[in-house]
């Protein structure tokens, strides 16, 4: 079972999310929090697999709560950040803190459930509607890096294709369709790309691709 904590200052949203999770055989909602401080306290007490935090909460906002949760010694909870606001600075802070996802509340319910499963597996993702723009900007403020780092030579041509598709916010299903292979094959390729490049998850693979200028910017440079 994937144990989930829900943190949002709107009781109706928490109630709807709990009802959604109750329809899933592999989820259980172990707790709720109505503000950021309570989210930090309850995460430490309950140790859920995934904590879903709203950005805007009283007493302590969701980003500060994310930073506190993930900085706690011995923490093994993955954090998904939800928001109705498509704001660059939110994504930067979430990524820097180590959040496993940044998602808009407009996401379809089944996609949100899928995102929780992704986080529970130890992977990460950003809402596809904001990935390319925001990660490109995020990567732009990192230290300059060589366009062709030596570890790229470890990738096969197919693995490099997968890296570029990841950088364009493609899901495993979309990559499978474009490469005419099965999703299990894609998962294997993604795992090998991350391992060879020493990256923790697919979000960092996207940042890596932009940082090393493997993806053209919006002007085609």
TrEMBL record:
Domain Response regulatory: 3-120
Modified residues (4-aspartylphosphate): 54
Molecular function terms, GO-annotated: DNA binding
Top-level taxonomic group: Bacteria
Stretches assigned to the HTH luxR-type domain: 148-213
SMART domains the UniProt entry points to: HTH_LUXR (SM00421), REC (SM00448)
Pfam families with a match to the protein in the record: GerE, Response_reg
Sorted UniProt keywords: DNA-binding, Phosphoprotein, Transcription, Transcription regulation
Protein's name according to its UniProt entry: Transcriptional regulator
């Amino acid at each position: 079972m994937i144990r989930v904590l829900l943190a949002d200052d709107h009781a109706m949203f928490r109630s709807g999310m709990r009802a959604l999770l109750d329809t899933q055989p592999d989820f259980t909602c172990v707790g709720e929090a109505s503000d950021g401080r309570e989210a930090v306290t309850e995460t430490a007490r309950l140790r859920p697999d995934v904590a879903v935090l709203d950005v805007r909460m009283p007493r302590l906002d969701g980003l500060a709560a994310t930073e506190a949760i993930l900085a706690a010694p011995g923490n093994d909870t993955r954090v998904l950040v939800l928001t109705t606001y498509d704001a660059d600075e939110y994504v930067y802070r979430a990524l820097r803190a180590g959040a496993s996802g940044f998602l808009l509340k407009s996401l379809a319910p089944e996609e949100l459930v899928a995102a929780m499963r992704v986080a529970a597996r130890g992977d990460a993702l950003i809402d596809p509607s904001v990935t390319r723009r925001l990660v490109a900007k995020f990567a732009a403020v990192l230290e300059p890096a060589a366009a062709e780092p030596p570890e790229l030579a470890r990738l096969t041509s197919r693995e490099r294709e997968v890296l570029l598709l990841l950088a364009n916010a493609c899901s495993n299903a979309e990559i499978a369709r474009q490469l005419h292979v099965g999703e299990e094959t894609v998962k294997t390729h993604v795992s090998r790309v991350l391992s060879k490049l020493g990256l923790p998850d697919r979000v960092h693979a996207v940042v890596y691709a932009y940082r090393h200028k493997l993806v053209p910017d919006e002007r085609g440079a």
